[in-house]
């Protein structure tokens, strides 16, 4: 299966590396956020996902806006079967989500609908939750609101 992957932080990088290591699927492109200034020197710092993509010689896309027509047209050229999104940090257009042959899937780090949106792990910890988990869902234009296909509970 031809996979396009979109993600930014360490949790996304870990999942991307797992997909690469299994060698069951072809990662045709990786989408991540633009490098951000970090530290006292405010030097540009690549995302953990970018580092994994570069280490594995994968095609990397870092659009200023994933909603831009230019980016969406370039993405369509990869003719992927599925777009897998893990903590990318941007809301994606319906046009982009529907481009892959089988659509787009999100892995969200909470038991949705609880902690929809950003920082679900941190919010679960701050609220003292004893359990959380992962939710796999088909993506739609709403924020973490598509139909859920699988939930995994973790303690």
Automatic annotation (TrEMBL):
Its EC number is 2.1.2.9. Transmembrane segments: none annotated. One of its GO terms (molecular function) is methionyl-tRNA formyltransferase activity. One of its GO terms (cellular component) is cytosol. It comes from the Bacteria. Residues 1-148 form the Formyl transferase N-terminal domain. It is an enzyme of class 2 (transferase). Pfam families: Formyl_trans_N (PF00551). Coiled coil: none annotated. Gene3D superfamilies: 3.40.50.12230. This is methionyl-tRNA formyltransferase.
């Amino acid at each position: 299966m031809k996979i396009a992957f979109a993600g930014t932080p360490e949790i996304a990088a870990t999942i991307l590396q797992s997909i690469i290591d299994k060698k069951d699927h072809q990662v045709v492109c990786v989408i991540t956020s633009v490098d951000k200034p970090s530290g006292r020197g405010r030097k540009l710092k690549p995302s953990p996902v970018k580092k994994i993509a570069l280490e594995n010689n994968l095609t990397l896309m870092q659009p200023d806006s994933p909603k831009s027509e230019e980016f969406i047209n370039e993405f369509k050229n990869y003719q992927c079967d599925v777009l897998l999104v893990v903590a990318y940090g941007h809301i994606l257009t319906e046009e982009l989500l529907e481009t892959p042959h089988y659509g787009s899937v999100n892995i969200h780090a909470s038991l949705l609908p609880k902690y929809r949106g950003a920082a679900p792990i941190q919010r679960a910890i701050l609220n003292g939750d004893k359990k959380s988990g992962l939710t796999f869902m088909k993506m739609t234009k709403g924020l973490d609101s598509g139909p859920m296909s699988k939930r995994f509970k973790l303690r």
